[in-house]
């Protein structure tokens, strides 16, 4: 009886899944996170290559980082203050930039900022995703990865990364990440069609193509083929 009930619950969850002509996927990740690297390389890029006409993908390279304004309290402290007293703003600019503390160290903070610039200044979604994938495999190689996917690193991305803009963009990604409800507890964190749920999180991590196909009103022929 317990097994039957479990199977029924799974079938009900699949049946209740919203159907759309386009699947919107938000990926919250970190530049040096092994799970993020594996997901982007083995799930996201191959699925995009097959189903790009049926997907919108938005990337956010902040993850579990924290941020501190110069001479000001930490981002996490400001966030706690906001919930303790709604009149306290989570950010009060102090100076021209921000300090970050990242899960995998300072190099990851640099990588997150670089990828923030790549996301802003690479217009073509396929080139953008391939650029990010290259950086996940080759951290810090902004110019080389740009050349490999046909995107110029100089001047826009380089100026963004080496100046203050990259940190400002990353701070904005932090705003978005720390406003998630439910809060991010794992990286990569996957939100499909504006709503996070645990089943879709794990399906997406290990069988993204299947998750996307199950959400489409009319699955295309690509959904009938298995990935090699």
Labels describing this entry:
single chain; mainly alpha; three-stranded mixed beta sheet; 10 helices; 5 strands; globular
Structure overview:
By secondary structure, this protein is mainly α. The protein has helices spanning 2-15, 34-51, 75-84, 106-121, 125-137, 142-149, 156-162, 165-178, 198-206, 208-215, and strands at residues 23-28, 55-60, 66-69, 98-101, 189-192. The strands form 2 sheets. Strands 2-1-5 form a 3-stranded mixed sheet, covered by helices on one side. It has a two-stranded antiparallel sheet with strand order 3-4. The model is unreliable at 1-15 and 70-94 (pLDDT under 50).
What is the number of helical segments per DSSP (H or I, 4+ residues)? 10
DSSP strand content: 5-15%
Q: What is the 3D shape? A: globular
Distance between the termini: 37 Å
Query: Gyration radius, to the nearest Å?
Result: 19 Å
What is the helix/strand order?
Answer: HEHEEHEHHHHHEHH
Low-confidence parts = 1-15, 70-94
Percentage of residues assigned to helices: 40-55%
Mean pLDDT: 85
Q: Largest sheet at a glance?
A: 3 strands, mixed
Q: What structural class do the secondary elements suggest?
A: mainly alpha
């Amino acid at each position: 009886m317990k097994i039957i009930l479990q199977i029924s619950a799974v079938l009900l969850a699949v049946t209740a899944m919203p159907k759309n002509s386009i699947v919107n996927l938000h990926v919250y990740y970190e530049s040096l996170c092994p799970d993020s690297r594996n997901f982007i390389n083995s799930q996201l890029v191959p699925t995009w290559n097959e189903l790009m006409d049926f997907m919108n993908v938005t990337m956010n390279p902040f993850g579990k980082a924290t941020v501190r304004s110069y001479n000001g309290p930490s981002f996490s402290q400001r966030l706690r203050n906001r919930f303790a007293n709604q009149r306290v703003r989570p950010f009060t600019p102090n100076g021209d930039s921000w300090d970050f503390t990242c899960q995998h160290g300072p190099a990851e903070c640099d990588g997150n900022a670089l990828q923030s610039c790549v996301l802003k200044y690479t217009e073509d979604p396929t080139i953008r995703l391939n650029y990010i994938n290259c950086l996940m495999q080759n951290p810090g190689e902004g110019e080389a990865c740009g050349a490999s996917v046909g995107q110029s690193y100089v001047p826009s991305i380089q100026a963004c990364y080496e100046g203050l803009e990259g940190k400002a963009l990353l701070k904005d990604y932090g705003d978005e990440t720390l406003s998630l409800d439910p809060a991010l507890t794992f990286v990569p964190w996957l939100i499909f069609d504006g709503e996070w749920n645990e089943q879709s999180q794990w399906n997406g991590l290990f069988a993204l193509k299947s998750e996307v196909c199950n959400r489409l009103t009319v699955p295309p022929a690509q959904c009938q083929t298995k990935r090699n």
